[in-house]
Amino acid sequence: MSVAAHPAHPTRASLRATRTTPETAPTPTPAPSSARLRIERSFRWLLAVVLAALAAAAIAFEHALRTLESVIAAEILPYIFATGTKPAVSGDSPAIAFQGDGHWFALRITAECAIAFYVAAILALTAALLPLPRFPIGRLLIAGAVGVAGMVLLNQVRFIWLGYVFSFQSREVFDWVHIVGGSILMAVGMAATLLFFVLFVVRKPSTKG
Questions:
Q1: What is the pTM of this model?
Q2: Which residue from 5, 41, 67, 131 could staple onto 94, CB 3.0 to 4.6 Å apart?
Q3: What phi and psi, each to the nearest 5 degrees, are found at residue 38?
């Protein structure tokens, strides 16, 4: 009598071993279309041209900006120390007329003290970086807006400082604050603005993992 050999039934373990699970390949991120890239590039250049034009306008109309600064300062000074203020004109320059220490004074805002050139520099920097795709548009516009607002506010601080010294200190102290102190204050403000641009826009965030 012959015995026929029957194939052994596969065990559950062997079934698991022979079962293959296909590996899922990562889905590639679709590359942006050339039309989208062209639209973004055109938009960047359009914004850059607009900001460059605003920078040029800030310099061309710096006298009007000085007049606006005198109006703003005249509104702020009564909350700090002055008992009466109003925008004025001294010579050909806008001025802030204010009463301090019982006397009326007029603080002229000359072209050297105007905010226009600082604003123009920040707008020009933003316009220069906009055409570069590596810098996000939103972050550039936010950095530019923060820089402009910060420098405008800092210049008002300088006017308040000068007005207070003009009212209550000697001429020598006023000259020092006007020539040295105010210049250092604005230089530090511009340095802080550039640092903010670097940290917020230029430097790439570090990725973990």
A1: 0.77
A2: 67
A3: -65, -40
